[in-house]
């Protein structure tokens, strides 16, 4: 779908210079002399490169709609993560490296959303929060309540997060997968 250069919004995916780019930041500029334009920070969806580009309001760009499909995480084998389509039971494999650091939060049976374009996976969305058990943390020091100090804790998936002093080893906590931070105790 063609859109004008001044209609680009953050989050839009456009086809530009032969690749797929996501608009990260958009700033509309109206200089005193000349026509208005949109200063757009783009991120390549395939290799992660960034690019700053100006689009005049008269220019048109191709806006791309990504296909979103729900998958269920099954297992990891030799650095490849296997997901299953819940409707067709078809399985796809994505490399752990491609998924990135957030792969540590994948749990058996977890539902994820894979974004793709023309059959090629471009992005993966995990749930915003996961419940994990603390396997190791320092004991609380009595009298250390004057300041709100956090202490490091090792989670069952090997990730370290900072937790409040009242959290102990063996407790289950809710972790934000985007920020990799402690949110609260699990119910």
Total number of beta strands: 16
Radius of gyration: 22 Å
**What is the CATH topology assignment of the largest domain?**
SH3 type barrels
Average the pLDDT over all residues and give the rounded result: 86
Q: Estimate the helix proportion, in percent.
A: under 10%
Q: What is the count of distinct domains?
A: 3
Percent of residues in beta strands: over 45%
Query: What spatial order of strands do you see in the largest sheet?
Result: 1-6-2-3-4-5
The biggest beta sheet, please? 6 strands, antiparallel
**Low-confidence regions:** none
**How do the SSEs run, as a string of H and E?**
EEEEEEEEEHEEEEEEE
- With helices defined by DSSP (H or I, 4 residues minimum), what is the helix count? 1
Category from helices, strands and their pairing: mainly beta
Shape: flat
Question: What gap, in angstroms, lies between the N and C termini?
Answer: 46 Å
Reported CATH architecture of the largest domain: Roll
CATH class of the largest domain: Mainly Beta
Report on the architecture of this protein.
2% of the residues lie in helices and 54% in strands. It has one helix at 96-99; strands spanning 2-4, 13-16, 19-29, 37-44, 50-56, 60-64, 67-77, 80-85, 91-95, 111-117, 120-125, 129-137, 151-155, 160-163, 172-176, 181-185. Strand 7 (67-77) and strand 8 form a beta hairpin. It is flat. One of its GO terms (molecular function) is translation elongation factor activity. It is found in: Cytoplasm.
């Amino acid at each position: 779908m063609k859109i004008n250069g001044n209609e680009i919004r953050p989050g839009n995916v456009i086809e530009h210079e032969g690749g797929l780019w996501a608009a990260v930041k958009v700033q509309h500029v109206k200089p005193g002399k000349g026509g208005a334009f949109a200063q757009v920070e783009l991120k390549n969806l395939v290799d992660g490169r960034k690019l700053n580009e100006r689009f005049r309001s008269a220019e048109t760009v191709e806006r791309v709609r990504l296909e979103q499909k729900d998958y269920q995480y099954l297992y990891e084998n030799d650095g490849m993560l296997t997901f299953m389509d819940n409707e067709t039971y078809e399985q796809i494999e994505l490399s752990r490296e491609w998924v990135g650091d957030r792969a540590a939060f994948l749990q058996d049976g977890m539902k994820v959303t894979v974004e793709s374009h023309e059959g090629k996976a471009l992005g993966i969305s995990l749930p915003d929060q996961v419940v994990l058990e603390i396997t190791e943390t320092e004991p609380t020091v009595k009298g250390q309540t004057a300041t709100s100090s956090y202490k490091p804790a090792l989670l069952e998936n090997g990730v370290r997060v900072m937790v409040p002093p009242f959290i102990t080893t063996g407790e289950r906590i809710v972790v934000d997968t985007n920020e990799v931070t402690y949110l609260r105790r699990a119910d």
